[in-house]
Every structure is written in C-alpha cells, then in structure tokens.
Specification:
The chain is an alpha/beta fold. It is built from seven helices and 16 strands. Belongs to the EXORDIUM family.
C-alpha cells in the first residue's frame, strides 16, 4: 500500500471517529452511538476452586478416550418429570422450567443465537447403534412437589430413589419407562451425600426393587446456602480469596443458587441423554467411574477457555454474565459439551 493511500485511509478513519464522538448536527456534542442491547465480550481469569482436588460432577476422571459401548441413548422424544423436593419459590421453579423448555425448538419460538436449543444440537449429534440421534424434542411431561420432605432433609443415593418411588406412586405422576427421565431437584435446605465435597449433581437409573421400574434419573441440589463457591461457581468465589484476584461474576437471573444449578442441570441432562443406563457413551473401562460428554468440558463456557480461563462469554448492560439465550428473553451461563464430530468442546457462542 502506498504512503498516500495509507494516509488517506487513516484520515478517513480519524474523521469517522470525530463524527461518532461529536456528531454532525450543528457541531453540538451528542452521545456516543452505542447499541446498549449488544453485549460486551470478555474472557475472565478465575481463581482456583475451593476443592481443587475434587471434580464437581459424578464419575469424572482423566481419561478422554470417549467411546460408544452399544447401549441406548434417548432417541425418542424426551419427557422430563420434575420432582421438586423441599420448599421452592415459584420464581425459582419458573427459571428452571424456562431453561428446560428452551432446550427444544419445538416448544416455542426460537430464541436469538447463541441459544440453548443450539447448545443442545451438540448433544443431539450422539447416536445409538442403529444410527438414531438423541432427540431434539424435550418436554416437561409432569411435576411433583414433595414439600413435606418425605425422606427427611438429609438424603443419600438410595433415598433419592425412595423420593422417586414416592412420586411415581402419586397420581397423576406417570411411570414412563420408555421416554421418561426423572429430575430430582432439592431445595437449599436439603443436604445430600457427597454434596459440595465431591458432587453438585449426578445421574443413574432406579432399581426395580426400589421403584418397580428401571427409570433414568438425575439429581441436582441448590447450593445457594451450603457451597455456592463450589456448585454455583463462578457466581461465587471462595471466601479465603479475601477480595484479591478475580471477583465473582454477576449471575444472569439474580439467583446465584438457581443460576448455578442451571449449568449442572444442563451437564447432567446431556449425560443422561447420551448414557441413560451407563452403557452408552463414556470414556474409560469402568462404567462405575466414567468420563462423560459433560465431564470433558467442565469449566469451559466459550472460545479461549482453559488454563484458568472460562472462555469468551457475554456481559449485558447490567453486568450479568451469560453465554446462551433462552425462551422469554432469559439468559443462561451453561458449560460446553464434547462434540463427537470435531472431537473437542463445542458451544453455539464459539468465536472461531
């Protein structure tokens, strides 16, 4: 490029800058022409987790050789049966249901990109031995509220199955052993075996001796009171940081406990769909301790993640952090999922 052309180009850019800053109407100063609806992009470096020796989710390991083990995936339209255990505010229930209903484009008008439905499209790439993909149709087929804490306020892995048994015995809660998955959500005052110490959520299937049927299920707890710095991370950071280092991020919906649950629910829902009976998609030789499609991308939310960075995410004009759009204008921060096509973590907010 000649020096004359370069000079002319720089001059034009300078004049454009002057117009944007001061306006061209009578020489009076105007506000900078920014669209405040557009988000800012950033890639924060975060402090180490409180329990750095533990993984947040069930069955994590260092193996990454993801393989198919010939078991079923959820290829039929997925019916979610919600079990609300304990005391839940209607606003909290609505937030979680908005996320679940955002997964399927069949449920509502498509949300703006990057959307929850686009995020689920990575999950739907997984197939069974017949070549059938995980379904993109996800519905909330039923709800049951266990407000009286039928199994007490301290649960373990077996008593969770008693919670499900109690729910399916009630009417009109359905036993759906063909298309159903059961999602047990415990309120902020309920403790769970290994909660906060080793897991924020897990999935498995019920025993016929407990429930009468083999039903895929997942549990996720509200950590807002017990350990938000672990299970609602990065919306809360360890107290020992004492204000040094990176600060907690502002949650997208103003409820740290439930906003933290959203990513865990997404993690478990993806793994439950791709490995419902623990004999389909996972890495490692032991199905009791598998690495699944969510485990491989734990802590990654956007391009440039890893090494202490969460990846390129968005911040709206109120400072709320998110990477996905959902129904009714909702915003969510949800971890990425391992793609079997590109063999890497993927999400619809990727910048490359």
């Amino acid at each position: 490029m000649s020096s004359f052309v370069m000079y002319g180009t720089l001059l034009n850019l300078f004049l454009l800058f002057i117009v944007l800053q001061f306006g061209s109407n009578n020489g009076s100063k105007t506000e900078q022409t920014l669209d405040l609806q557009n988000p800012n992009f950033f890639n924060p470096k975060l402090p180490p987790r409180t329990l750095s020796s533990n993984k947040k989710f069930e069955g994590s390991s260092d193996l990454v050789n993801l393989r198919y083990h010939m078991g079923p995936v959820l290829s039929s339209p997925i019916n979610i049966y919600l079990i609300w255990y304990g005391k839940w505010a209607p606003s909290q229930q609505l937030l979680i249901k908005d996320f679940l209903l955002s997964v399927s484009t069949f449920n509502h008008r498509a949300a703006p990109s990057p959307s929850v439905a686009e995020w689920w499209s990575t999950v739907s790439l997984y197939t069974d031995q017949t070549g059938a993909n995980i379904s993109r149709s996800v519905l909330i087929a039923g709800e049951y509220s266990d407000r009286k804490y039928s199994q007490g306020t301290h649960l373990n892995r077996l008593s969770i199955q008693d919670v499900i048994a109690e729910a399916v015995k009630s009417k009109p809660f359905t036993v759906d052993h063909k298309k159903g998955i059961y999602l047990v959500l415990t309120s902020v005052d309920v403790t769970m075996q290994d909660f906060c110490r080793a897991v924020c959520g897990f999935h498995y299937f019920t025993f016929a001796s407990k429930v009468g049927y083999t039903l895929p299920y997942a549990w996720v707890g509200n950590s807002g009171r017990q350990c938000p710095e672990v299970c609602a991370y990065p919306f809360a950071v360890p107290g020992y940081m004492g204000g040094s280092g990176a600060a907690a991020l502002k949650s997208p919906n103003g409820d740290i406990g439930v906003d933290g649950m959203i990513s865990v629910i997404g993690h478990e829902l993806a793994e439950l769909s791709s490995n419902p009976l623990v004999n389909a998609w996972y890495a490692g030789e032991d199905p009791v301790a598998p690495t699944e499609i969510g485990d491989l991308c734990e802590g990654l939310y956007g391009t440039g993640g890893g090494g202490g960075y969460m990846g390129q995410v968005m911040k709206d004009r109120d400072g709320r952090t998110y990477n996905l759009n959902g129904r009714r204008g909702r915003k969510f921060l949800v971890q990425w999922i391992w793609s079997p096509i590109i063999k890497a973590c993927a999400g619809p907010n990727a910048m490359d």
